[in-house]
Amino acid sequence: RPGARAWVPADGDLAALAVAAEGCRGCELYAPATQVVFGAGDPGARCLMVGEQPGDREDVEGEPFVGPAGRLLDSAMAEAGLARDSVWLTNAVKHFRFTERGKRRLHRSPDAGHVTACRPWLAAELERVRPELIVALGAVAGRALAGPSFRVTKERGVLLPWPDRAARGLVAGDVPAAQLLATVHPSAVLRSDDRETAYAALVADLRVAADALS
Ligand code: URA
Ligand code: SF4
Fold first, then answer.
1. In whole angstroms, what is the distance from residue 128 CA to residue 43 CA?
2. Rounded to the nearest 5°, which phi and psi values hold at 90?
3. Rounded distance between C-alpha atoms, residue 163 and residue 146, angstroms
């Protein structure tokens, strides 16, 4: 796995990055996927949100968070007072990882090597957007942004300084200081035994983000 670095242009705006990402061969995940799913939203956003990786719907449509998890995220954001079109929404890994089971494609979480390979794209997005606030949705995003020992369950719902020492080595280049807020992934809410409670906790965390931006 060579990693994405060689495919990331040094200059160019987010639209140029999105085009360049179509050609990325930084890890093996590009091959079985339909297409790359780059970040989307407001290039001037004050808030950048990071998920895990595109799912089945996202892989087909080429847009982040357009499937079931995306619908849940939309409603949680709306309830928290965060407009989806006012943020830059992206993923730690830009290609869908799956296993085929008959006609179905089952999501497989990316491993740490995929996250590391893909991180130059995330770093480039952070450099271009220069957000004040970064929201990590779930453990994969939390570790992509804050290192392998980061625990979303322990750190969720509070504003943390970013990059801290653990994060500084992860994103090279000129990334300005921001605050980091971690919460659970919307898919974890969908899988939860107590969906209502898990959803309310996600909304409460996102309210902390909305308040930080108000
Ligand atoms: N889950 C994610 O983490 N990202 C998406 O874009 C869709 C589902
Ligand atoms: Fe490149 Fe990331 Fe896709 Fe791997 S997952 S090919 S590093 S864009």
1. 8
2. -145, -175
3. 7
Substitution site in 118, 119, 122, 140 for ligand 2 pocket (most atoms within 8 Å of beta carbon): 118
Does residue 173 surpass a pLDDT of 90?
Answer: no
Interatomic CA distance for residues 104 and 99, integer angstroms: 8
Model pLDDT for residues 63-113, shown as the tens digit of each residue = 999 999 999 999 999 999 999 999 999 999 999 999 999 999 999 999 999
**190 DSSP β-pair partners:** none
Per-residue confidence (pLDDT) for residue 170, from 0 to 100: 81
Q: Which atom of ligand 2 is nearest to the CA of 53?
A: 5
Beta-carbon contacts of residue 77 (< 8 Å; ≥ 6 apart): 83, 84, 87, 206
ipTM of the complex, rounded to two decimals = 0.97
**Ligand showing the shortest atom-to-Cα distance for residue 35:** 2
Residue 142 contacts residue 84 (beta carbons within 8 Å)? no
pLDDT above 80 for 169: no
Ligand 1 atom closest to 141 (CA): 3
State in Å: Cα 191 to ligand 1 middle. Answer: 14
Tokens of 41: 């939203």
96 Cβ closer than 6 Å to some ligand 1 atom:
no
Q: Is 128 in the pocket of ligand 2 (CB under 6 A)?
A: no
